[in-house]
Specification:
Number of strands: 7
Radius of gyration: 34 Å
Order of helices and strands: HHHHEEHHEEEEE
Structural class: alpha+beta
Oligomer: single chain
Largest sheet: 3 strands, antiparallel
Helix content: 40-55%
Length: 197
C-alpha cells in the first residue's frame, strides 16, 4: 500500500525534469525581453497597413465604378424600350429630352444623382453603317452638347446615357479620373431600329 501511495504522490517525468533543470538566467532574460520589447510594432504596422489600406480602398472604388456602370447599362436598356416601342413618340404626347430624362431617372435607383448628374443623348441615323459614337471627353473636358431625336417608325436610334462619377482616391497614385475635377465618365449605349408602331 505504501508503494502505491508513493507512486500516486510522485510527479510526472516532464514535471520532474522541468523542476530538476532550472532554465539558465540568460534564456529567461531573453524570453522576457522578447515579450516586453514591442517598440517596433507600431512602425511595422504603419509600413504594412498603409499600402494595404490604399489597395483595399482602390479595390472598393474600382468595384463601385464597375457596379455603377452596370446599373447605367441596365437603365439605358430599360428606358430605350420607350423609344423602341413608340411610347416616347405617341401622337399628341411626344416626349422632350427632359421628359425622357425623367423617365430614365425612374429606372436608376439611389446610386446616382440623376437630376443633376445624368446626361441624355438620343440621335437618329440613316443606317447602322453611319452610326458614329464620339467620346464626349476631350483633354479632360466634358462636352455635354447632346441632342434628342427619337425618330419615327423604322428609324435607327442610338441612346446614350452619361454620368460623371466622383473619384475619391486621386492622390494615392491610383487615379480612375478621366475628367477634370476628379471625376470619371461612365457611359452606357443602346443602338436599335424602332418598331413599326
Amino acid at each position: 500500500m505504501r508503494a502505491y501511495l508513493r507512486f500516486l504522490s510522485r510527479k510526472p517525468r516532464t514535471e520532474q525534469a522541468a523542476a530538476s533543470a532550472p532554465e539558465k538566467p540568460c534564456v529567461m532574460k531573453r524570453r522576457r525581453s522578447f515579450w516586453r520589447n514591442n517598440s517596433g510594432a507600431a512602425v511595422e504596422f504603419a509600413l504594412v497597413a498603409t499600402p494595404f489600406l490604399a489597395l483595399l480602398f482602390a479595390i472598393i472604388e474600382t468595384a463601385l465604378v464597375f457596379f455603377a456602370g452596370q446599373v447605367l447599362e441596365t437603365a439605358v436598356q430599360d428606358s430605350a424600350r420607350a423609344i423602341l416601342t413608340g411610347q416616347a413618340q405617341q401622337t399628341g404626347n411626344v416626349w422632350t429630352q427632359a421628359q425622357f430624362k425623367q423617365f430614365v431617372c425612374t429606372k436608376v435607383y439611389g446610386l446616382f444623382d440623376c437630376v443633376n448628374g445624368i446626361y441624355v443623348d438620343v440621335k437618329k441615323f440613316s443606317s447602322f453603317q453611319n452610326v458614329t459614337i464620339t467620346n464626349p471627353v476631350v483633354n479632360g473636358t466634358f462636352n455635354n452638347n447632346f441632342t434628342y431625336d427619337a425618330g419615327g417608325p423604322g428609324d435607327i436610334i442610338v441612346v446614350r446615357l452619361h454620368y460623371l462619377w466622383p473619384v475619391s482616391l486621386p492622390t494615392l497614385g491610383f487615379n480612375l479620373a478621366d475628367v477634370n475635377g476628379s471625376k470619371r465618365l461612365i457611359s452606357a449605349t443602346a443602338a436599335f431600329r424602332n418598331e413599326p408602331f
